[in-house]
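note to self — DONT lose this again. spent like an hour looking for the file last time. sequence + predicted structure for the chain T wanted, 141 res
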Amino acid sequence: MAKKHKEAPSDAQVAIKWAVRVFVLGTLVLLLVLALMDYFAKKDAQATADAWLDRQHEEVAGEGLKQRELAALIKGRPTLRDGAVSDLQDPRLSQAVQVYQWKGIFRTYKVYVGLLPIGQPTIEDDIVETVEGPGGLADAE
């Protein structure tokens, strides 16, 4: 019995196969890049919150962590907005709230900073009372 020879694919068929492969690979690379962007936004928010909490625990009693010291510990490029005290899970004595937001592709990661004003004319001298986020109940939006 003679073997049947397969016909060689035409140039158009080869081009279509390569176009499909390039499209699939491009889509996978795009999804990977988007996932990495979101991952790094979350990582920066978590690293900043951890650094602030560590610095807050290092402060000696009576001194307190000042709001102006937070900027040196920020990772990434968050946006800053004022929030409501009700945004905090544990408001303690906080009278003002600042919300730092890292925007990922899929989510926005937030760190809430509760401030205790000490009567100074500038907010930079306010004492940081509490730091929350990301990943807490307040960040579940």
